[in-house]
Amino acid sequence: MSHLGKPLSPARAWLGPLLLLLGGTCIGLAPIGLRWGLDSLGPQAIAFWRYMFAIPALFLLLIFIERRMPARINGYVIAAGTFFALDIALWHWGLTLTTVANATFIVNLGNVCVGFAAWLFLKERPKPIWFVAVLIAVTGAAALSLGGESGGKTDIRGDLLALGAAFLVSGYMLCSKIARNRLGAMDVIFWLTVTEAIVAAFIVAASGERFFPATLAGFAAPAFLALVAQVGGQGLIIAGLGRTPAAIAGIIVLIQPVVAAAISWQLFDEPLSAIQGGGAGLILFGIWLSQGAARERRQKLASKPSQKTAKDPA
């Protein structure tokens, strides 16, 4: 499944970052679906049904696309799924107490930290340009989060919950990266979702929330999240992780708060100030700049065969 160490065509080299960008955009819609569903279900129940509705869709996709049953689950997938379910539990709770932009920014700090974790555990040392891209993207994310008008809907309790979720994001991304190096993308996202549904069921029971909405219409928001955020968003991110260094992937998915804040501006009366608009621009610039490290890596991989030939003409 892996193509590590092999020269990549330009199209294939850009596939990983493109998948991550599309996945991050889909995940950016997740808080929108959550806000819509809170009138019918609690935040933890919404997360549970997000996973449950996604499982049959992912199973059918695997059967029709791969034409086989799912491969055997491994410990890294279980760990990643547990981290993600706990992350979403804290994040959903935090979203009920603070703004979409605030909660999404804080959680995504974990995506940046995964670059340092990958450096420590996977020996994926980031290029110098990556540190510059991180500084720019995080500065932009901070401006996007903190640059709004005072007296908004922020609450320190929601921010602290989102901070806890950020630590869990790092564990999820790191374990998913390792799992993706051992299993195909479809297998990883399927077993991740199964694990997340099991963990989420215990969380709903512990929280005291009801499992079922009063009417069938209450399932609309979880169904939206299942297709857009879980199958589309998380699936694309898992696929992209198999083709992109974890450090660069963490910056690319910072597109999430930009998407979330832009849509929330229109739907939830959370307008963006000039500072927040500038912050969104910095995030996008940081994402673009991070691709400099990716381009350098791809050029080195592409040059290896020719260097070997030059040294060994015989």
TrEMBL record:
Keyword flag S-adenosyl-L-methionine: no
Pfam families named in the record: EamA
Annotated EamA domain residues: 15-145, 157-289
SUPFAM superfamilies: Multidrug resistance efflux transporter EmrE
Record InterPro entries: EamA_dom, EmrE-like
Transmembrane segments: 12-34, 46-64, 76-94, 100-122, 129-148, 160-176, 188-207, 219-239, 246-268, 274-294
Record's keyword annotation contains Kinase: no
Top-level taxon of the source organism: Bacteria
Protein name: Membrane protein
Organism ancestry: Bacteria, Pseudomonadati, Pseudomonadota, Alphaproteobacteria, Hyphomonadales
